[in-house]
Write a structure and sequence with these properties.
By secondary structure, the protein is of the alpha/beta class. The strands form 3 sheets. The chain has an 8-stranded mixed sheet, sandwiched between helices. Helix 2 runs antiparallel to helix 9. The structure holds N,N,N-trimethyl-histidine. Monomer.
């Protein structure tokens, strides 16, 4: 084995967190759940399918930027060590690692399988890279992860547009803690999706093949399997809405009839009226000005801005 693996999450980590989120979100008005629970085995596979849909441009657009500009980005950061928050398959990461091949790489993710699979692949391609895999939650363990030793100045990358899943207040807390964890000479690379025509945005979250609908509805199966709930997914439909005032896409599940759900493991009963909607995800979209304002408020200065040729997605570099 040519990587180091550290587990910062207790074995039962997600159990209490999921219970807490269900007890909070499904008793709220309107009902909501945080998007992190989408990603069981089926959900992760459906997300991979989403990234290949013609309507879902963010993954392709971000890859196009990395293919064109990764070398310039890494060189201008001066980094010898890449830290990736939410690394997943580390597939796009390779484009950055090509420039850091004999330095260090720290990958942080909640999935041990994803980390080890990516670690094996990377170790084969980059024999001189020091690989440090950390199973952790980027909202909980950031400070701890950023205290780990590094091979030279670090580039901390948060790719994929996942920043958009955080609400503005959570975003500010997150960006602040990234900023506070960096040393002089380090930098932060952010992948953020950009505001564009509502048609294009809604289609990206409500595709014609119904894959995003299946991804959204799979959340009900996650609740059935993990909390002994008895959702009938056919009683709900997928809905994606663009909120222009808040500049975010909302994914919702709408009850098609009155529904009563029993959560055996929680001693909880939840009622949906016909037509009632539950919010399952926000995916915020940005402008360059908005990012400069928010990153500036967190203590960052601008270090570079790149988009794909169609101007759909952005990568931006920030210095503490
Ligand atoms: C993985 C959070 C970036 O918000 O676009 C894709 C998740 N949800 N289709 C996004 C997602 C519906 C995705 N992120």
């Amino acid at each position: 084995m040519s990587y180091r693996f550290t587990d910062l999450l207790p074995a039962d980590h997600s159990g209490p967190a999921l219970r807490h989120d269900v007890l909070t979100g499904l008793t709220a008005e309107p009902k909501w759940l945080p998007p992190k629970w989408f990603y069981d085995k089926t959900g992760s596979a459906l997300f991979e399918d989403i990234t290949r849909l013609p309507e879902y441009y963010p993954t392709r657009s971000e890859r196009a930027i990395l293919e064109a500009d990764a070398a310039v980005i890494v060189r201008s950061s001066g980094a010898g060590h890449l830290v990736e928050l939410g690394s997943g398959s580390s597939e796009k990461t390779r484009l950055l690692l090509d420039e850091i091949a004999s330095g260090g790489y720290t990958a942080l993710d909640v999935s041990e399988d994803a980390l080890r699979q990516a670690g094996d692949g990377l170790a084969a391609t980059y024999p001189d890279l020091r690989i440090d895999l950390v199973r952790a939650d980027f909202e909980e363990h950031l400070t701890e992860v950023l205290r780990r030793p590094a091979d030279g100045p670090r580039l901390v990358a948060f790719l994929g547009g996942t920043i958009g899943n955080l609400k503005p207040e959570q975003r500010q807390v997150f960006l602040r803690s990234v900023r506070d964890g960096l040393n002089p000479g380090d930098s932060f690379l952010l992948g953020a999706d950009l505001v564009k025509s509502p048609d294009v945005l809604v289609r990206a979250y409500d595709d014609s093949a119904g894959v995003t609908a299946a991804f959204n509805l799979n959340l009900l199966q996650v609740l059935n399997h993990r909390l002994g709930a008895d959702f009938d997914p056919s009683a709900f439909e997928h809905h994606a809405v663009w909120d222009g005032d808040r500049a975010w896409i909302e994914m919702r599940l709408r009850a098609l009839r009155d529904v009563i759900v029993r959560f055996a493991d929680l001693d909880l009963t939840v009622r949906f009226a016909a037509g009632e909607e539950m919010r399952t995800e926000i995916s915020a979209k940005f402008t360059r000005e908005r990012l400069e304002k928010e990153l500036g408020a967190a203590g960052f200065g601008a270090g570079g801005w790149w988009t794909d040729p169609d101007g759909r997605f952005s990568l931006s570099l920030w210095r503490p």
